[in-house]
Each structure stands twice: as C-alpha cells, then as structure tokens.
Design a protein that fits this description.
15 helices, single chain, mainly alpha
Length: about 300
Amino acid sequence: MEAWVVITICAAFLQNLRSALQKHLRSSLGTTGASFVRFGYGFPLAIAYVIALHHFAGYEFAALNATFAFWSVVGGLAQIFATILLVYLFSLRNFAVGTAYSKTEPVQAAIFGLILLGERLTPGAVGAIIVGVIGVMMISVARMPLSWRNLLSAMTGRTALIGIASGAIFGISAVAYRSAALALDGPNPIMQAAVTLACVTTFQTIFMLVWMLIKDPAEIGRVARSWRSSSLVGLAGVTGSACWFTAMALQQVAYVRALGQIELLFTFAASVFVFRERINRMEVAGCLLIVAGILLLLMWK
C-alpha cells in the first residue's frame, strides 16, 4: 500500500476525532472559540514537529519564499472560514450529516487543482469521485421521502449550501497548502509539509486571536479556561493536519481528499456510539457508496 494512502487514512481518523471533540466544545464555547482551539492549542506542537525532524531525523530547514508565503496565507484563511462554517453546521443537523455535506470537497478540490496547478485526473478517478458524491447526496436526503424535488430542495437548502460552501473553501485550502509545500526548496516532502503546517498554524493563531480581541474578547478567557478539552482538540488537529499536509505533498489533492471521505465511516461510528444519534438505511447506503467510490479510486487511479 502506498504511503500517501496510509497517511490519508490516519488523517481522516484524526480529523473525525477533532471534529467530535469540537462538537462537544460547541456547547461551552462559541463557534469562533471552538474553531480557534484547533490552531491555538496546535501550533506549538507543529513547531516542535519541525524542530524534531531537524534534530532527530537530520532534515534541513526548508528555505521560505514569497510564493510559499502567499499560498500559506490563502490556505490558512480559507481553512479558518471553512472550519467556522463546519462547526456552525453541527448546530443545524446531526454530526454525521453535517460532515457529509462538507464531503463534496473532492470534486471541488479537483476543479481547483486543475485551475491552479494544472493537475488532471484519469477518467476512472473522475468516475470514482462521482460515485462518492452520489453517496453524499443520498445522505443529504435520507431524512425525507426520496424524490427529485426533495433531492433538489436538500441540495439547495440552507444546511446544504453551508456544507457545500465549507467543502469548497476546504478544497481551496487544500490546493493552496499543496502549492505552498511544493514552493519550498526541499529537502523532502515530509519536511516541506511540516514547515508549511508550522507556519500556517502560527499565522492562523495570530489572526484568530486578533479577530477575537476585536469581536469578542471574553471568548479568549473561555478558551483559556477550557484548556483541558481544548488541548485535546489541538493535539488531534495538528497531528491530523500533519498527515494531510504530508499526503498532499506526496499526491494530488483530489486523490487525497477523495480517499479522505473514509472519514465518514469514522463519523458514523461517532454519531451512533458517542452522540447516540440514529442513522437510517438511506444514510448507511450513502456511506456504502462513498466506500465504493474510495475503493474504485484506489483501483483506477
């Protein structure tokens, strides 16, 4: 099994864990605070990761440049706003379905990858991604009678549009991060991904601190008081991001994000066993289609 496949599966699991922890935080923190903790409590670990790679693995520090800085800022801002939308989405519908809407990202990432990086997909990969998105669409209408009218309504309603917007912005963020990592001058994809992660999370922390100081200074105090649970979000977030960044430095974004839909398996497990939410047959069928799309992607890539 290729390295990027294993790394992506680990990233999907850690991202699901981080999202589940953030949903719990949503009850004690606002949307901004629950979104901030993944960066604010994660950036010291990201910096430590770079230092560890340098001292223990012997990797040289990557040389920064203007192109790297541009894509890092674009990716960092996009990820902040996509995360805020996703956390807000959890309050509108159940955990599994809320995450499912954002999983239209692979198609959008493929488009952005083609436009910004000129990355093309094989016809088989395009078909596999479409199968996965059909699974997402099935999940989106699972709570209503199945009809074309309901399908159109579900895909154009407020919850759907917020989820799809979240997926689109995550797609932009992913392509920007790959562009940033590729802009660095070596020494290898692992170090390039680590340096990108450290720089981006530090920037995101500063940006969101300033934002909260302006908009809601009291939220900073609530974030500080929730340090026990928030630090877990930061740990899961930064380790998951390290895996995402490394996978995207090794492989095209569309492939990584399509395989990353396996997160929905972990999401459904969390929805049933942690949040005690009921999952119906249509949602299960949609999940199976997503899995089928992932398997087809791995066979036809």
